[in-house]
Amino acid sequence: MPPRTPARISFRIRYALLALLAAIIFGTIGFHFIERWPLADSLYVTVQTLTTVGYGDQTPRSGVGRMFAVAVMLIGAGGVALAISTIVQSGVQSELVATFGQRRRSRRMSKLSNHFIICGSGRVGSHLVRDLLRTNESFVVIEQNQQRAAEFAQRGINVLVSDATLDETLREARVEHARGLAACLPDDADNVYVVLTARDLNPNLRIVARAAEEQAEAKLLRAGANHVVAPTIIGGHRMAVALTKPAISEFMDSITADELGLAFEQVEVDAASGLVGQELRATSIRSELDVVIISIRRQNGEMLFNPAGDAAIENGDILIAIGRADSLMKLNGLARGIK
Q1: Which terminal residue of the chain has fewer beta carbons within 10 Å of its beta carbon, N or C?
Q2: Helix 39-50 crosses helix 6-34 at what angle (to 10 degrees)?
Q3: Radius of gyration for the alpha carbons in the chain, expressed in angstroms and rounded
Q4: Residue 129, C-beta contacts closer than 8 angstroms, at least 6 positions apart
Q5: pTM for the whole thing?
Q6: 150: burial class by Cβ within 10 Å (0-12, 13-18, 19+)?
Q7: What gap in Å lies between CA 193 and CA 180, rounded to an integer?
Q8: pLDDT for res 55
């Protein structure tokens, strides 16, 4: 049996109300033409009949009118009872659906680990949700707007309808077990508060924050953000590149839009990997996988841009690479020692 979704429950209530309205209209028009009563009196008698109150000051006088009243009693009164029971039943089912849905979401979130938390799903956050869905990453969205939250829930996305600046909200999102957090709230002060709270709850958390104003960047970094993104500044830089260096802009846009089938990836080299100790030119990364290593970041923070062929790969290195998705997956396997 299919589950009682809110849309199905709402349809049943509308159907019951329409059936009740049809019975009232039917009775009113019938009494008006049969008994020659004004429409107001006909409506009054119809409602009396449907609600089983009984006739008092006005009753059908003709035989046809009485027979019509009997028909209204048998059909209409039963319809009223059905409508009332349907509305009550649907209301109860709606509450049950909401309760069990919340319980399912709570159980699902209680198992989250190594996931991402998105605080706010406005213009910036919604794009982040889309990208995480495309990469099949595990994440939870914290959103105060109930309409947006309902849309996410219907799509099967983990969502909390709450204030992201509250400690208990971040704890419910299992921030202590999360891999990263994005503070995408529209107000810089709120993002600073989220960053402070999240950093206190999880010192090892990777935090990326949105800055609406340029001067907020320093405050967010002091609050504990690892990286700050200012959409207005980035947008200005992209427009400048598009204006002065269109070929570069078109290339970057084609990668972002996945027109070339290329993507950037960061790959961490594990101690069990066969790449450890090898020079870059001795590996199959370029020759077989057709992946380009743009830079190597050492564990001590040193960054080798466009590393030479004799650059040795060490345990814990992070390789910044560009290539096709299937090739990048194979490189991930090599870096983790998976054959």
Answers
A1: N
A2: 130
A3: 32
A4: 118, 121, 139, 141, 152, 157
A5: 0.60
A6: middle
A7: 16
A8: 56
